[in-house]
Specification:
Layout (H helix, E strand, L loop, with lengths): L8 E5 L2 H12 L5 H4 L5 H13 L3 E8 L2 E10 L16 E7 L10 H12 L7 E4 L6 H10 L2 E8 L2 E9 H8 L3
Parallel strand pairs: 4-5
Antiparallel strand pairs: 1-2, 2-3, 3-4, 5-7, 6-7
Length: 181
């Protein structure tokens, strides 16, 4: 699917029984595990996913293109997250993590439109003025995707599992850039 083709993008909440094996497979893909560090046994991943689904400060999604599951998303509230101490945040700041799991969808120009739709979904919370990201500082491709979507680099931050590049997407910039109101 080329970038000139309009794809139907949708998100559905992660369902443990339906999605655990798919997510485990994605976490073991060569293009994913260096940045997510979740290339663990299925039992260990089941334990991780169980905890993640029980954590009320974030919501997990499967991203689909034309109804085909191909990406994983974690939308989170900065309050209560490890990122909370890394910058001066506001009560309704949100953050985002993502990965393209299916190799067939890599390099197809879909990461930016998917990210744009998820950030637009996060900005539906009227009090959210900023969405943050903190991609692994080594992940130049994802940093580029975030920038194309309207995120600005702020500074590197040290997190428990990586050095990330803190990036901000401000509501007013996003709405101007993409014509949302």
């Amino acid at each position: 699917m080329g970038t000139d083709t309009v794809a139907t993008i949708s998100f559905q909440r992660v369902d443990f029984k339906r999605d655990v094996e798919l997510l485990h497979r994605w976490m073991n893909e060569d293009h994913v595990h260096p940045f997510w560090n979740l290339n663990v046994s299925l039992d260990a991943y089941k334990e991780h996913l169980t905890k993640a689904l029980a954590d009320a400060h974030h919501t997990l999604y499967i991203g689909e293109v034309e109804g085909n599951p191909m990406s994983y998303w974690e939308a989170y509230w900065v309050k209560g997250d490890v990122t909370e101490q890394t910058y001066e945040n506001e009560p309704y700041d949100q953050g985002i993590h993502l990965l393209i799991g299916e190799k067939d969808y890599l390099g197809k120009g879909l990461a930016t439109p998917l990210l744009r739709e998820m950030v637009a979904k996060q900005f539906k919370e009227k009090q959210t003025k900023r969405v943050i990201a903190e991609p692994d500082i080594r992940n130049e491709k994802m940093i580029h995707v975030f920038q194309k979507c309207g995120f600005e680099p702020v500074y590197p931050i040290t997190l428990p599992d990586k050095t990330g590049l803190l990036m901000f997407c401000e509501r007013d910039q996003f709405e101007r850039m993409w014509g949302y109101a």
